[in-house]
């Protein structure tokens, strides 16, 4: 129990700090970044705020056991008050992997291979009970930590039930929910069992305000409410849209540190003098469409042989959810296709695909700076910050090839070359167009992209939500 109720609370699965236990039993901590970290810092030190998150691994759980009432040491959290929940490991695994990442994420990204999946059986129902328990643990912690009339910002599909649960415990609070993913249209959302679909919607409608990254996702949510719950939004929940932009100040400063310059020199040597570069930087999630991106690049080399030995595809595919077999298989397929292209087209002095699978933020920024073309072709994405970050960091200007299914499309499409993410031939032609843009045109487009990308930086994104909720 907090000694003083907080004025502002954030709830998310992942918090701003993670822990490891060393061989000597000492705890090591690592602070994370992202829009929430930047946003929460914008409210100022005089605002009493608490971040509620889950313990994700053994190190986090040990930190909670050593913490005072679950509140982590301020020196580990950058001065923020963070309460980390030690939810039973089996309950957490069922809620996070079983429901959030293997069901809800697949629905919102419309990713099921429907002849075989999903199968909502007794095991799914058992996992759904764990998802409820996980959400209830968050609701109870938020109820304990919140001061009278506090503003609570609950994040994402992991915590879709928490707003309604918290409302029952603390009707005095101002509760917001923000979805960082797309929202499925009614025909696809109704893949879910009827009672589960209704429970998800009414869970979010427990909030005073439900917000989304784009108008498209907000409209899909209200369409689902009308189709499944009946006309109107019965709770009176306000629907909002807040597009998350790139943090230009941080990115530009970080991109010009010595470690980035070192990696740029290495990348330039690997690419080769006088060659163009097509850059992609993604986590290896199924929605990011990395394999079709590689196939489009292969099509480019086949249809436009003039680009052979004159362009390199720099592909960073960082590991994601490797505890799930489907993701490990996808990573293997990314490797296989990249190796095929290199075997088919590579020469002694030219490697067509430079594939990196180990996460390295400084190297990503180096690639952003030198990219001639950025390929961002997700099958479906809530926003996609890479599409916004590359133009902000680019040294000479970048041509953006962008999927129409990325949330960023709403803001960036005017100055990007847009593609149907399933159309490999069309994407290959878009890459050719991007590579042949005159330098002044590319630079001008990149300037407009950067302006659009930074219109709602993380601090403004967060404060707009908070002020709208309080208002």
Your description of this structure?
The protein is an alpha/beta fold. The chain is 46% helix and 18% strand. The strands form three sheets. A seven-stranded parallel beta sheet has the order 5-4-1-6-7-8-9, sandwiched between helices. The chain is globular. It starts with 5 loop residues before the first strand and ends with a helix. The mean pLDDT is 93.
Give the helices and strands, then pairings:
Elements: E1 6-11, E2 17-21, E3 27-31, H1 35-41, E4 49-54, H2 58-66, E5 81-85, H3 89-108, H4 122-145, E6 146-155, H5 162-169, E7 174-179, H6 186-189, H7 194-204, E8 209-212, H8 215-229, E9 238-241, H9 248-254, H10 258-271, E10 276-283, H11 290-303, E11 311-318, H12 325-345, E12 353-356, H13 361-370, E13 373-376, H14 386-393, E14 399-403, H15 409-412, E15 417-419, H16 424-435, H17 439-453, H18 458-470
Parallel strand pairs: 1-4, 1-6, 4-5, 6-7, 7-8, 8-9, 10-11, 10-13, 11-12, 13-14, 14-15
Antiparallel strand pairs: 2-3
Main features:
471 residues, alpha/beta, 7-stranded parallel sheet, 18 helices, 15 strands, 46% helix
Going by helix content, strand content and strand pairing, the class is alpha/beta
Put simply, the count of helices is 18
Strand content: 15-25%
Strand order of the largest sheet: 5-4-1-6-7-8-9
Radius of gyration: 23 Å
Uncertain runs are none
Gross morphology:
globular
Helical content band: 40-55%
- Please describe the biggest sheet, giving its number of strands, its sense, and whether it closes into a barrel: 7 strands, parallel
- Our measurement of the CA-to-CA distance between the termini, rounded to an integer number of angstroms, reads 28 Å
Number of DSSP-assigned strands? 15
Q: Give the averaged pLDDT, no decimals.
A: 93
């Amino acid at each position: 129990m907090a000694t003083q109720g907080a004025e502002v609370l954030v709830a998310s699965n992942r918090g701003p700090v993670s822990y490891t236990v060393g061989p000597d039993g000492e705890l090591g901590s690592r602070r994370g970044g992202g829009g929430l970290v930047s946003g929460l810092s914008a409210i100022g030190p005089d605002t009493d705020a608490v971040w509620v998150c889950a313990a994700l691994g053994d190190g986090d759980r040990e930190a909670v056991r050593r913490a005072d009432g679950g509140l982590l040491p301020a020196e580990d959290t950058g001065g923020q008050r963070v309460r980390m929940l030690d939810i039973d490991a089996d309950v957490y695994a069922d809620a996070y992997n079983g429901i959030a990442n293997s069901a809800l994420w697949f629905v919102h990204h419309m990713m099921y291979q429907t002849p075989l999946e999903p199968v909502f059986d007794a095991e799914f129902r058992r996992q759904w009970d764990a998802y409820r328990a996980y959400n209830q643990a968050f609701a109870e912690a938020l109820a304990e930590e919140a001061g009278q009339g506090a503003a609570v910002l609950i994040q994402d599909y992991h915590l879709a039930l928490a707003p309604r649960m918290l409302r029952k415990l603390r009707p005095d609070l101002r509760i917001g929910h923000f979805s960082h993913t797309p929202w499925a249209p009614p025909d696809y959302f109704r893949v879910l069992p009827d009672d589960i679909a209704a429970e998800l919607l009414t869970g979010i409608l427990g909030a005073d305000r439900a917000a989304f990254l784009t108008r498209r996702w907000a409209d899909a949510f209200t369409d689902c409410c009308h189709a499944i719950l009946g006309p109107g939004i019965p709770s009176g929940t306000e629907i909002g849209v807040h597009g998350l932009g790139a943090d230009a100040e941080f990115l530009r400063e970080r991109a010009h540190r010595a470690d980035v310059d070192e990696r740029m020199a290495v990348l330039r040597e690997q690419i080769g003098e006088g060659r163009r570069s097509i850059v992609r930087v993604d986590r290896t999630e199924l929605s990011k469409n990395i394999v079709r991106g590689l196939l489009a690049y292969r099509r480019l080399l086949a249809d436009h042989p003039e680009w052979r030995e004159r362009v390199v595809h720099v592909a960073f595919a960082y590991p994601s959810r490797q505890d799930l077999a489907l993701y490990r298989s996808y990573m293997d397929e990314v490797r296989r296709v990249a190796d095929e292209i290199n075997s088919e087209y590579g020469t002694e002095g030219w490697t067509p695909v430079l594939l990196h699978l180990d996460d390295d933020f400084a190297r990503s920024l180096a690639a952003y700076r030198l990219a001639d073309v950025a390929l961002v072709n997700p099958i479906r994405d809530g926003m996609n910050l890479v599409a916004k970050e590359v133009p902000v960091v680019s040294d000479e200007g970048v041509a953006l090839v962008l999927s129409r299914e990325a949330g960023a499309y709403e803001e960036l499409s005017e100055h990007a070359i847009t593609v149907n993410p399933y159309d490999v031939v069309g994407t290959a032609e878009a890459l050719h167009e991007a590579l042949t843009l005159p330098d002044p045109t590319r630079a001008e487009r990149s300037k407009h992209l950067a302006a659009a990308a930074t219109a709602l930086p993380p601090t403004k994104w967060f404060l707009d939500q908070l002020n709208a909720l309080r208002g």
